[in-house]
Description:
The chain has helices spanning 12-24, 40-45, 64-74, 85-106, 110-114, 122-142, 156-176, 180-183, 189-196, 199-212, and strands spanning 3-7, 28-32, 53-56, 59-62. By secondary structure, the protein is an alpha+beta fold. It starts with a strand and ends with a helix.
Amino acid sequence: MTLTLHGFPVSNYYNKVKMALLEKGVPFQEAYDTPHKPSDGMQTASPLKKVPYLTTPQGPLCESQVIVDWIEAAYPTPALLPADPFAAAKVRELTTFIDWHLEIAARQLYGMTFFGAPALSDESLARIRKQIERAIQGFAQLARFSPYVAGDTFTQADLSAFNSLGLVGMVTQKAYGVDLLAAAGVDYKPYLKRVGERASGQRIVADRKQAQLPKA
């Protein structure tokens, strides 16, 4: 049974898992699924009806970092975590910071800026901006960009950084008229260009653009 990744190519967390599979050269199939019209499979595999989820010979897995960790254990080469336990923990620390502090704060703006939801109140926008700016300060303290986000090697942290930093910059530009990452001195665009030149990055970007094209 081939691995099947379920979700859609515009989702940054779907692309995080997809990039891990591509980097490791793991054969997999893709199946479109969305929480707005969940398939029967999503009802079973993802209790909160979230994407991505992965079907494996042993059964389904949901939650992007859980899936990435399983991929790392099942397909250890090439490694996306350092062998040294402390270095690996630092990669996990940075990954957690991107996913659960920076991106999740910016996610509060997605409805208004990307999906046509009503504009948030000035009070809410100000509160969210403080959360994002605080998260950016912490991220900037941890990130290395030398040349990868956690150091000189491509790691799990890059799966999150490559697929989320551009979104954070874009959504804050739309909501506040300023890219809060760039305004804080985080020079992330050359990093996105570098990672986007990898075979996995090229595939992610091409598939995301294709999914965003108007349907005939």
